[in-house]
Amino acid sequence: AAIFAKVIEQEEAAAAEEDKRQRRAARQQQFVNLDEAGTGTFAGGPQAGSVWYYYNPTAITSGQADFRRTWGERPLERNWRRSNKGLEEGGFGDVDPALAAEQDAETENSVPIAELSPEERRAKRQQELLNKLPLTAEAQQTAYAKLEFAYYRLGDIYREDLEEPVNAIPPFESLLNRFDTSQYAPEVMYQLYLIYQPVDLERSNYYKNLLINQYPNTIYAKVIINPNYQEESNAAAAKAQRLYREAYQFYETQAFTEAGTLVSQGLNDFPENDFTDNFALLKILIEAEQGTNIYNYRFALEGFKTDYPESELLGYAEKLLEASQSVETRIQQAKAIQYISYFDQEHYFVLVYKNASAEATDITQQIDQFNKATYPDVTLATSSLILNDEYSMVLVAPFTGKQDALAYYNAFIQDNSTLNGLQRFNFNNFVITKDNFTIYLQAKKPDSYKTFYQQNYLRLE
Asked: Which fold does the domain 139-225 belong to in CATH?
């Protein structure tokens, strides 16, 4: 309460002083008007040659003072006593009925300030100040952030806009004293180092050492340590850009070993550069292409997000991480599908394709032609099946065993005429046992058989 009383006392003193100033200005203007007119009454009563109210500065000033005494300080706006301002001003504004009713009640119950006793005015003002206090943790944090920025901005205005560097010292030092971990601290220390240099070398050195010790990796500290830092940094950035471009070209042409060598060179030669994050992410992509497992890949991407939280590539890294999660899901699903390692049984040849890529009859006809040309004395049945909403397949059967099925597979992939007829279709083909084909149909996942097939069929060829 004592603090509020002091604030209110200061406000009243300032208002009284302003009122005196305006009254003095009004009286001076009256004398000027009388002197210019050469006649007239002193108190502003009717006189010959009097001007319209809004052309009379004396009358306007007096009217403004009277308004403030009656209603207090108010923002300049139309219809300030009406609750439905939006409708009056725009003709089509929407007003919340509850809010309008509340405003109407406030207007009806409001009492002009001039009619309140001094004690009532102070109590009213104290309540207004109390309502503005930041009482929650969130409100206090916001208030402190505004105060922190205000110190920084005030010092910046004095130093840069008004070119009064000495006057920037108090707000800058207040910021450091009240917010010692401020985001503006490195820059403010650097500014104080420069401001004090021509007037107080000891104080300048104090802020120089403080900056170098507390924020050695900031550009402000590096510029103090090495005055040529910015020029050298720009030259290094140009070299790093050229090296990165060359590494990425190798990556695009799948020359991963060469790309990896250049990336390692870039990370070693330019550890703190604008392109460091580019090199780091490219290294992750290269290692993924060279066979790192999905878990190491995801771990590396998470590390990139931690190491480079402000990188422009962060969004791209997050997309890669999201895609890797779906890959991991497919791996886990594939592990849950157990194929049987019993091959002494009937086999099928299967060709899987995307539904949108072809009509089943087109592929079936191509395979029938191949069967008649390559196996004229063998009865092979060709049929079409749906695997899931996205994929369908063509089945060729039966084959008595694994070797017969693989012989057909090899003949099929070596027949250029057949492959040329099917090359416009996005397809995948393999051989599979009768038992495993049942599992494959139930799994409904085109890639679920891939690892098992590579380990048990392709390595034997």
From this structure: 1.25.40
